[in-house]
From TrEMBL:
This is Transglutaminase-like domain-containing protein. Keywords: Membrane, Transmembrane, Transmembrane helix. The keyword Cytoplasm does not apply. PANTHER family: PROTEIN-GLUTAMINE GAMMA-GLUTAMYLTRANSFERASE (PTHR42736). Residues 476-550 form the Transglutaminase-like domain. It comes from the Bacteria. The chain crosses the membrane at residues 12-30, 36-54, 66-85, 117-135, 140-158, 164-186, 198-219, 613-632. InterPro entries: Bact_TGase-like, Papain-like_cys_pep_sf, Transglutaminase-like. SMART domains: TGc (SM00460). Pfam families: Transglut_core. It comes from Ureibacillus sinduriensis BLB-1 = JCM 15800. The keyword Transmembrane applies.
Length: 732
């Protein structure tokens, strides 16, 4: 009784370690696919491990697992009680929809609930396989290797940071390997398992593994000796994205991490969205308020506050809007799976088609004013939606004659500057705005400064600040060469140095017209149009956008209600700084082929981005299936080899190889000849097992063929019958 209790405790320890390793699988999948309810999925893993631990009856365990899966799907996707009429109706309709899609091979219309069902089945299979590895094989090496490979791949090719996760996996995996190795040694020596002996062997090794791993993790490490190949791989695959390591050449595009700006980038014409609108304009995404001397971060001023609103509801945020009668609508078709909403200036509401049972809403992060679509309280992506807006028109009289003071809360947040900012930056700001009286005039002076003082727009050979160097100081006084991030960040810092609240804005420029339909044009926005600019706070007016980057003009609209010579049309015009495209009358066939190949790679890349969740599950299913096939290889490999051997035939010339093939099949079946055992002795064992004499006959003829001169006396017909009989018995 004591021994059985200890075996249960021992298996419990194994399963606890397995639970934490499986969690390392689940975290990146949930993170990358923006999937919620991680705790409930972990609960299913724990439930499956407990069922496996106590070895419940297959029917009982299957009923419990299926019941949990059904409850989860109805609770998450239906929002009703599973045993209610609504819950049963939801299950029936969902099953009918997915079976119909499967019959039509319409993979894109398979619902999220059915994908979740397949994901749970995959976890179920994986836990069954792990139980086999632990209890039967007593070896988790392949599982550990696969886990490290999976997390390492995601760490390399996605935004998931898996460095510490790999360390945790290695520690847990090595500890598990130690436990199972000791278990195997006890079994092979036929020694009764004793807890004291077990701990004497296991504890020192476990302590050593943890100590060595900790030292390795905290010790300083050399930088990479070779350049990162991932940017080049992504470039070849046509994937957009703007984030790379400091100092590296990156691919232009919208990125999330702006903590370290600088460095060159390469162009990328991957289309990210299409906009049907009446005018060309800037498309705003989010703002950031903390300048760190290297880049931008979010201060968390609103402590992560979120504001939700439904489709069509009026959005309340910091920007002004134009008159109600000037309200317009723009349709957005998303080509790249961004999880945020593209915002025109003067945004009023967002409309999107959605399922009534999807708990759909829009959520705005109050710190950055980034708007994201949510379903079931988790971020999602939209392929199409429309935005209603009324572009603000600023009165020139209000800009020139402010009558209000700056709100202290706005000043506190948007006048922030790092203490390490060089004093010459503040001095330059004072020189630029010298003699100007109003905040708007000061902001305009700073905006025009970059276009009148030898600055140059370029994306190549753009410097990155050294460790103790300020990003803005380097650009203003040393290089004067850069792109939108350099110009916009520098203007925000100069505005704040001059006492004008300002914030850094990210989004997209207007793109190119690809179609016209009366008063509406279709604009194509690519990764090349990813852009940053400035919003300054002007008393009596509010936030107003400024464009300091050379080659770009601001999209703000001003009503010049005062007599002034300063009138100008503030219309968005993007002047190309590059050389004009060559006009080619006839495109060579090789160029057409290259263009088609590039288009194909973009389509492939877009397909992978749109179906990321399905592909991750499919990859996991393939991996688990391969391991299941490997685990039961003794059942199917003899059949495969038997079919191949039968096709080769059996005659005098192939007798020797056919006999060796028979030995190979017996080994796959689990009958391996022992070291030093003669063929005749082995043949007798096989005959005893199969209750026949065919193996001895074949062995005698084989030895006669190899060692005797009377090989011609072998009855090939009889040997063929014996060989085929044994093949059939082995593969049956």
């Amino acid at each position: 009784m004591k021994n059985n209790s200890f075996s249960l405790i021992e298996l419990s320890i194994y399963y606890i370690v397995v639970f934490f390793i499986l969690r390392e699988w689940l975290v990146p999948v949930m993170d990358l696919t923006k999937t919620g309810y991680m705790e409930l999925i972990l609960l299913f893993i724990a439930l499956s491990l407990v069922i496996s631990l106590f070895r419940l009856n297959f029917i009982v365990s299957s009923f419990v697992k299926i019941a949990y899966i059904v409850w989860f799907i109805v609770f998450v996707y239906g929002g009703v009680f599973v045993l209610s009429a609504e819950g049963i109706d939801f299950l029936f309709n969902d099953l009918q929809t997915n079976l119909s899609a499967l019959m039509r091979a319409d993979w894109m219309n398979i619902t999220d609930s059915f994908r979740t069902f397949l994901f749970f089945i995959l976890i179920w299979m994986l836990i069954y396989l792990i139980h086999h590895w632990i209890v039967v094989r007593m070896n988790v090496f392949y599982f550990l290797l696969l886990t490290v490979f999976f997390v390492g791949t995601l760490d390399t090719f996605t935004e998931y940071e898996g460095s510490f996760a790999i360390v945790r996996i290695m520690v847990l995996g090595l500890v598990m390997t130690v436990f199972l190795l000791i278990k195997r040694l006890f079994n092979q020596a036929n020694i009764k398992l004793d807890i004291v002996k077990y701990l004497k062997l296991a504890v020192p090794v476990v302590v050593l593994v943890v100590a060595v791993s900790s030292i390795a993790y905290f010790l300083p490490k050399s930088p990479p000796q070779w350049p990162d190949p991932v940017p080049f791989i992504k470039s070849a695959a046509g994937q957009g994205g703007g984030e790379v390591n400091k100092g590296g050449v990156k691919k232009v595009g919208y990125g999330e991490n702006d903590s370290e700006l600088g460095g060159s980038f390469i162009a990328d014409d991957t289309v990210v969205f299409l906009a049907e609108a009446s005018t060309k304009q800037y498309w705003r995404v989010e703002t950031k308020d903390v300048y760190t001397s290297k880049g931008w971060e979010d201060s968390g001023y609103s402590q992560g506050e979120l504001k939700s609103f439904g489709p069509g509801e009026t959005i309340q945020y910091s920007l002004p809007r134009g008159p109600e009668e000037d309200t317009k609508s723009a349709s957005i078709q998303v080509m790249y799976p961004y999880d945020f909403i593209i915002q025109p200036y003067g945004l009023k509401s967002v409309d999107a088609s959605y399922s009534e049972n999807s708990n759909f809403e829009f959520v705005m992060a109050m710190d950055t004013e980034k708007i994201m679509p949510y379903t079931f309280q988790a971020p999602t992506t939209l392929q199409e939606y429309s935005v209603n807006y009324s572009k603000p028109v600023y009165l020139y009289s209000s800009l020139k004659n402010p009558t209000e003071e700056i709100d202290p809360k706005i000043a506190e947040r948007y006048l922030q500057l790092p203490k390490t900012l060089p004093e010459r930056v503040r001095d330059l700001a004072a020189d630029i705005v010298g003699g100007r009286e109003t905040p708007y005039d000061k902001a305009r002076a700073i905006e025009m400064y970059f276009k009148q003082n030898g600055f140059r727009y370029d994306t190549d050979n753009v410097a990155t600040p050294s460790e103790g160097q300020d990003y803005v100081d380097q650009f203003l006084f040393e290089t004067k060469v850069g792109y939108c991030d350099n110009f916009s960040t520098s203007m925000v810092v100069l505005l704040r140095s001059a006492g004008i609240p300002a914030r850094w804005v990210k989004g997209f420029a207007g793109g190119d017209v690809i179609d016209n339909d009366g008063s509406t044009s279709t604009y194509q926005i690519t990764n090349n149009d990813a852009h940053s600019w400035v919003e300054a706070y002007i008393p009596s007016v509010g936030w107003i956008n400024f464009e300091p980057t050379i080659g770009f003009n601001s999209s703000r609209s001003i009503d010049y209600d005062l007599q002034t010579d300063a009138y100008q049309e503030d219309v968005l015009v993007i002047e190309e700084e590059t050389e004009p495209d060559e006009v080619v009358e006839e495109q060579p066939e090789t160029q057409q082929t290259a263009a088609q190949g590039n288009s194909f790679s973009k389509n492939i890349s877009h397909f992978f981005e749109q179906n990321k969740f399905i592909l991750v599950i499919l990859l996991l299913a393939i991996v688990v299936s391969l391991f299941v096939l490997y685990g039961v290889r003794r059942k199917w490999m003899p059949k495969v080899y038997g079919a191949l051997y039968r096709r080769r035939g059996f005659d005098e010339s192939t007798f020797e190889s056919a006999f060796l093939q028979l030995l190979k099949l017996l080994e796959l079946k689990g009958f391996k000849r022992k070291n030093g055992q003669t063929l005749q002795t082995f043949a007798k064992e096989m005959d005893a097992y199969f209750e026949t004499s065919h193996m001895s006959k074949l062995t005698k003829c084989y030895e006669q063929t190899i060692y005797s001169d009377n090989a011609s006396k072998v009855d090939i017909t009889q040997m063929k019958e014996s060989w085929e009989y044994l093949i059939n018995r082995i593969t049956s």
